[in-house]
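Example record

The entry below shows one chain as it appears in the dataset: sequence first, then structure tokens.
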Amino acid sequence: MEKARPAGLDVIYLQKPSQFDAALVPVCAQLLLMDYQDVPAAEALVAAVHRLRPVARIVTQTEAAQLVAGHLSDVLGIPGTSGRTARLLHDKAAMRELLRNDGAGSVPFLRNPSRAQLLAFVDEHGGAVVKPTKGSGSLGVRLIGSPAEAEQAWDWCERFAIGDFLVEKLLTGAEVSVESFSRGGRHTIVAMTAKDTDGGVVETGHVVPAPLDQATLASVAEVTVGLLDAVGLTDGPAHTELILTAEGPRIVESHARRGGDRINDLVALVYGVDLEAATYRLAGTSDPLAGLHPARGAAAIRFLTAEPGTVTGVTGLAEARARAGVVEAAVSVRPGSVVPELRWSEDRCGHVVVHAEDAATAVRLARSVADSIVITTVAGTLPPPQETLADLLRPFDEVLDPFDHPQENSCAR
């Protein structure tokens, strides 16, 4: 929020009371504390504010508020990501349907299949990914590598109460993301990020710039721009994830926001542009991408994980922070904290950010520094695991689609 100040903007901050941080008070002109996912109430409140003090832009840097922000921009008739564009990017099935006949973007998928349809799909394609149609941070994502695993995935899907879900062909290849910024429908590729998942679904590291050859860079850029044009994104940042398959780049998903996982910090370190600050500058008169320059070195982040259990100690943090090239090192757990199994991004235990002369060196340094921070746990007696999607979202006071009415678990039909 402090990044809005240099753009000369007054910020009216709309947030759920449960998620409010008092540190924001000095940087906001007004605070509106309410459940913004109560769409009719949010619409009425923002319309009233707009009548008294016209709003220039509605901006969100998070995934949970994308649909509401797009809808409210439409209601007020102001520039910004439209409700249609927000829906196409937030709803993975809607995006897949849009790209169904696009050779570069098309990936076989089914929405809310039956058990028999899921098994037949895996049998045909050899592997699949199950995920909620809306969500982020690897929440509720499960890989299926064989027909036998498909049976297990269906049982898990029922237990997890995944709701509206998607099954799509498992894409194999290196993972990358494109960090772009659009103005008036023209898309600038600011950076490309290489990713590491260590064979799972939760991202464990990133590096900027992605070490790709020119032909691959051009191909990835072409596919990304095609998607952004198709969904109608005209202004602001986008974070588009792709897999580099043997047949060429294939889109995984995209978002009308800057990338998470501190990717924005990596981009700023290497290219000199903060995409959060650039988003605020859209409401002003200055160039949002002022200061953008060619890559200067490389930056990487590596996330810390630990064995499930109760934390008994953390060592090596001070030494890690003192190492050359380390920009930041942080641990989010302490003795007594409970570490669950790694199910989504929120289950990671910290991170290190480094800057080096090239991508390979940055990745090696980030791994080395992360490995030097040791989080010790003891299994002991853990609390019951959070079994459902709603359980995982409850601490964040969040629903995946505020426009949906309560319905039965689609996976159980």
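Notes for this example: The CA atoms of residues 124 and 194 lie 30 Å apart. The first helix runs from residue 39 to 52.
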